[in-house]
Amino acid sequence: MEVYEFNRFHPQWLHFKLSSNAEYVMRFKDRAFQLLEETTLTEDSCRARFNSRISEIEKAIIAESARWGDTRSGSPLNRDDHWYPELNKVLTTFFDNRTQIVIDQLKDEGLYTTLLPPTISRNGTKIKSPVYMVNEPFSVSLAAGTNTIYYTLNGNDPRLAGSGISPDALQIKGNGTLSINGSAIIKARTYKNGAWSALKHIDFLSVNEDYTNLKVTEIHYNPENVVVGLDTTNGKDFEFIEFKNTGETALNLSGLILDSAIYYEFPPNTILGPKKFYVLASKPENFYDRYHLTASGNFKDNLSNGGEQIVLHNGNNNNILKFLVF
Fold first, then answer.
1. Burial profile 196-210: b = 16 or more Cβ within 10 angstroms, e = fewer
2. CA Rg, the chain, in Å?
3. Model confidence over 101-126: pLDDT tens digits?
């Protein structure tokens, strides 16, 4: 990996230094595989994003040409004769095989997985999307040739830091089948002779969720002001509410709304693993300063010190949780 001379810090230097750390390299391989082979940086995704930009400025480029088209050429450059042909070159030449070129470049630097992750398929069709909606029970197949697959269903990585095997990991020799009956988190890696593949991670989100096991386990309510020297931090800035999935399977929290004196809408594709927590804070930065933990989200407004009703509903005003705080 080349790092050119420089007079001040820059990201390439940081990446170069971090690349001597095996855990950083493993995380980089995980992200590179997901982006280049499944999501944002596949050829189809790049073309779609480029075409979206074209449609945004296709008319405006006429005005751009009228104002600046003859700046560098005696013959004015225009949209139809010059811009469109250049776009076509990018779409048909640059993007063609570009993703594979980047993959090969990363492999040359030891930054791309050489052991392929297991495939996860339904009815013979590979699932590449990191999010898959579930409206009925079905089965998925995991396959890794003759290699071993380690996977988890609790949201944890089957690989431990240092390349060990997680005690949470389940094993499949070569090929196997799993039943998906609701929300689930599958994290799987291929394992061969002590080496691990990049991570294959799919969140299966149920559209008919049972929230019986979703509990509020802690509310930091009406905290005292914090005085440090001449500075005072309002106690309300330390408020938080903690949810826990007390069950043995994942929960789809997408679209749920905390709607009372405090407001929060759970983002799309939000899944909470079994026995995991989801913490909403009034001021996430204050929460981190005090507890050295990152809050899952930031609710609006504050709880009333005189008492409060907490309501969590599913967006259709069907209450999931409703209780009073004093």
1. bbbbbbbbbbbeebe
2. 25
3. 999 999 999 999 999 999 999 999 99
